[in-house]
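Lab manual, section 2.4: Encoding a predicted structure.

Procedure: take the sequence of the chain (199 residues), apply the prediction step described in section 2.3, and record the output as structure tokens. A sample record is shown.
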Amino acid sequence: MIATVLIFIFVLALNVAPVFAPPTWLVLSAIAVYFKINNILLLAFVGAVAATLGRLILAKLSNKIIRGRFLSERSKKNVDDIKEHLEKKEALTFSVFLFYAFSPLPSSQLFIAYGLTNLRLRLIALPFFLGRLTSYAILSFTASEVTKKFAYHFIKTGSFLTSYFIFSQLLVMLTIYLFVRIDWHVLFTEKKLRFFKKK
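Recorded output:
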């Protein structure tokens, strides 16, 4: 029970972090191999619950901190154009998050961007949880042979801070910057990609 709680807290913290955190599926795979955990489904469930809660907290924090303190009124209005568009297509939003959550791709930028829109978080919680539960279970199981060698090295050296990893995290930050700078009203109405200039 204590080990489960510690795993939950650790995964939660990883998913609250906006950048420079290792992929959750890799951490869970490493834990499964290093501690010889046989119940992969339980591990995946705990990881999915913690990851979902962590990402929702990240989205909430991005709304309170980035939108509340750093975005100009013009930028807020620009992002609100996405909100108005997505509110009319809840099924599409659900499907996109479910599809994305099935993949091992990083999701921090997705939740930060979603948090900036002020949209309801409950709309994305369920699809993300279902997708991550499935992907964590599959990836933790199928990646075990590879992880036997890589996970121990990862845990022992913390070598995820490679040049590739740093580049990918910088790319996440660039994605958020572009998300705010795109003129979404023009994109939705005129089907043209345009960036608005700062005044």
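Check your result against the sample. The longest helix spans residues 40-70.
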